Protein 1
Amino acid sequence: MDLVNVNINTAGYSGNKSVIKNVALSISPGDMVGLIGPNGAGKSTIIKAITGLLPVLDGNVEFGGVCKNYAYIPEQPVLYEGLTLWEHLEFAAAVYEIDRGIFINRAEELLRLFRLAHVKHNLPTTFSKGMQQKVMLILGFLLKPSLYVIDEPFIGLDPIGIKDFLFIIQQARSEGSGVLLSTHSLDTAEKICTSFVLINEGTVLTKGSLWEIREQSQLPNGSLFDCFIKLLENSI
């Protein structure tokens, strides 16, 4: 059973102007679906539609029975000025109603993994962009949801941070979680994603596995980048 099925006729922000149209995708347990497109293509709008943050939507976003919850990790960190890193984690645990013992073990493990244990009592608003991104990842992974919706996780992360992220997201997938990953890092996406949704100007250019996208772009040995550029050029 799919974790989520998305069928959007039109969606946007206000008035009659549609930002995205005719968008359909699904995510199953263990999937990592790469949402690929240029700036302004509608990736973030699709994510907002899935997470219920879009005011205007004609269509359906249906979560399957096996999807108990989801975590949304935005591109721009959202942090409280007066809370330390540990207090952010405690607040999230209270909202998610995570058992205290489970929370402490999980939080400490994530802080060690992302190498932030030494600053857990500091204010994240004073951290670097990369460290703030790690805080958002820790908050997302704290819940251990069925579905992760992640917007541009690689921005600001150093190579070690990327390695740590890829390790834990692979672990989550092996436990049955699905992932929707919006990214401009096509080389990385090609290596880690099970399928792709390529979009431009608010609609889907094509979707499928790398093999299927190579077939559709008529580039049997092409990289994801090459296939995307060719499909993009053909759509103009």
Note: The beta strands are 4-12, 20-27, 32-36, 56-63, 70-73, 147-151, 178-182, 195-200, 203-208.
Protein 2
Amino acid sequence: MTLRSVDLRKEPVEEVLNRVERSLEVRLDQEPVVRKRRSLGARTDRGTWVRIERRGLDRIGVQGGDGTASAEALLGIAKPAWLAGVAWRDETEPVMWRADETELLPGPPVGSAVVTEDPQLSEEWWAAMNASLDALASQHTNRFATPDTETLTQELVTGTIHSVFPGGDTAVVEWRPAHADFNWANVTGPVFCVFDWEDWGMAPCGLDAANLWGASLAVPALADRVRSERRADLESRDGKLMTLFVAAKILGPYADPDDPRLGAARETAERVVKELQTG
């Protein structure tokens, strides 16, 4: 059966929401529901949050789609506690639905995935971000990250980079746990917290820093701050590869010609390519 392309911002979801309410024995505040392309979110009547995701069975792999629940074992990271979850297979399509109930976030997301204005974050925010990313990288897991629901492999890294920057050695040296979707829509302010752990797992060192850098390129001072804060990650060989990995996604065949990040992404990527060739 072919998986139908679905955008949950446009689909009727009342039946899904009602099923989650019955399964978790909770009432959802359905006005408003936060709608994204493949997920839904809503507050509950017991002061918690429920996130619901639709994911094709071919995108689940050996991890089972339980990223938020499994992340509860991670220590030293500012994230909402996981409380309960439920999953079921769709009756008509090769799709798994999963709902996870967590604590409420300490504040709103800093912005959309890509920001165009400096969010003016405090020194405490940056310190908490660094502490969380350092704690995450020091831990262990059998999971592999699934950015954009694709399992992150050496082949994916090489193929993505070479699609824009052909040639060159792209062999990853060090793999560490990563959030894998670390952008401004998945972190809060003014108090730092990182959420949406569906795709976390092992990834090349520097992926999270590179993702946040790429999401900041429309604000040069912010992108520079990210690179400064995560210099150890981004100046490592693997961090440079992840810079190219993220830049290739920005500059690749589906690039938006009006994306304000294009120039900065290409400029940095060209410098990094030269550094890798000479280093």
Note: The domain at 14-103 is CATH 3.30.200 (Phosphorylase Kinase; domain 1).
Protein 3
Amino acid sequence: MKDALIAKLQHKSAVIGIIGLGYVGLPLVLRFAEAGYRVIGFDIDPAKVEALARGETYIEHIPATAVAAANAAGFEATTDYARAAEADALIVCVPTPLNRFREPDLSFVLGTVDSLLPHLRPGQVLSLESTTYPGTTDEELKPRIESRGLTVGGDAFLVFSPEREDPGNPNFSTRTIPKVCGGCTPACLEVGLALYGRVIDRVVPVSSTRAAELTKLLENIHRAVNIGLVNEMKIVADKMGIDIHEVIRAAATKPFGFVPYYPGPGLGGHCIPIDPFYLTWKAREYGVNTRFIELAGEVNAAMPDYVVAKVAAALNSVKKAINGSRVLVLGIAYKKNVDDTRESPSVVLMEKLRALGAEVAYSDPHLPAFPKMREHRFDLASTPLTPQTLAGFDCVLLATDHDRFDYAMIRECAPLIVDCRGRYLEPAGHIVKA
């Protein structure tokens, strides 16, 4: 059965099912369709399914023309999980958030797999791409699949291959980012390599699903810890009257032994603020306290309060209080040049300022209206940036430094600027570094 499935994957006669059509799943859909596979996309949101059927996109950096091309190649989107039986490969790309106790919430993954179980059949491979703690694939998914009378590694195959999407990055695509893959058995790994080998330029095999799961966590913990370090350095440098961005630029000229990371108002995106806590939670099962990771998390989580304090001090310097001041937040995406607001520190800043009595508005060329979010609610539209609108705010808080902002105009027309991103290099009396 393994050889037959590998042959179908290699000859592109296999049907690919992708569950979760968001920032990870939709690019995979387009790549498999582009490579010549028939693709079925599954999502619980009928609005997404209907938009894709019309050839429309709901993710800014993915053009509608790419969706239309996938449709022309036979791509179908559906909310009907019974159609999973048609697929030879099922790739799960659903969220893995934290609950309110900062513990892993696998409800989306397990709920999805439970919905697929009645439709699984011999000769399929299931790949989990959602970031999770080591052991999830073989401890949670494998028993569920085998409860259907299937044998993982015999007539069914199970792999973990973590997503590595970087929305808005012009230098890397789904095809060109190397893909790590681990299988529950050697046969599973062979099938996983065949699944991704025709659509990704380089697939990197590892010895197990646990190794693949930990690989993804290490990648993002590396970033979280280094960002925590540079955020702490920013506070120290500020107390010393030193511009941390100047220091980073100078240090980055060293051709070895240093990788530049940049401070900001906090961590955003679905990975870096969340993934480290998947490992800290699992490590406790083994009696290990991940103090280094948790300390970085504390530093990064405290950055919005640091920024709010900077806003308060800046307003105080012109004899104003946060309470009653009009504050314009520039950029609510979690990083520049995208429309992705997941875990965005900008939104946390907006809430904290609103709670202190500020009249908060935002401007973001990538998000004309404040999006629907599970934990944050603002009934706002993006404020157009003109000399007149800028002059009407007491403070402009640069939270996400999109390239489409007119920084010269902002500098000239805003009465007070708090810069979280080091965009303004030259000192000015009305610009406060945060």
Note: The mean pLDDT is 95.
Protein 4
Amino acid sequence: MYDFKMTARLRTNIMKQRPIFEQKNFSFRREEKEGYISVRSTNLPRLQELFLNRTTQNILKKCNGSNTVEQIIRIISDMYPDIQRQVIANDVVKNLSVLSRFQLIEWKERNPFMKKLCVAFEGNKEFELLDEGDIREIITFIKANTKNVRFLNVMSRFEPYYDELFIRDVLFNFTEDFFAVRENGEIKGIATLKYTTNLDSTVCSLGLLIAQAGYEESLLTGIVEYSGGTCNRAMVKIKVQLPEKDCDAKAEFIENLQTHGFIKENISLGEFQGGNVCNYCFFYEKEGSKAC
């Protein structure tokens, strides 16, 4: 049985939300064996077929814009009386997460899987979780601050962060979150957290950190104190991967990581282009850290 480990924030927010499914969200639909159907998303045409089982199809049928998630769980539970209610609840939320990621359902009020966070701290500074409405501002800042890149994940390339479609995709697929530090409303630094598409994973990775002088520390403070409250899954740790050959040049950045509670967990041998990778990790003390 798959156990979808929701954070307390998601568990609270999602139950009163009303998902909406419309046939127009399928650009393609075909009956398959054993009650499965294969479909394609109208909104994400580059994706290959998705295979939906009977349970997922039953959930979709109840996403009419009137039923809340709580009501859908109750309806599906009545259809499968021999299965524990919590198992049904986990399965419904897991399915809604996947269906949202592939834009097969919409939400009447707001998508509960799209997080929002804005925290005032350190005078006029704010630590904020950015969303699709901030994409152009994200790109403008990144293009204007290429000389201020403090960190880039070893598995990432910088150029895609210039691309609006790339940023939109990772936001809607819930594979990368963008955080910013603002001062007097102006972005001074951006950091991202990358999530694996494996819903069992409880580890996220620092993707990009780009900051003007004096704002790297504020970004790291925001990440360790508040990012746990935005995760839909119960994250255990944040991983920062640095090629061992670059560690001397990154000594100041590593010192800043350690000041903010990151520890050197291990060295992965031959992990990247034949070279070793040093893994620095921050462990969330409890679910959600300082959830907001």
Note: The helical segments are 8-14, 54-62, 69-79, 85-101, 135-144, 164-172, 216-226, 251-259.
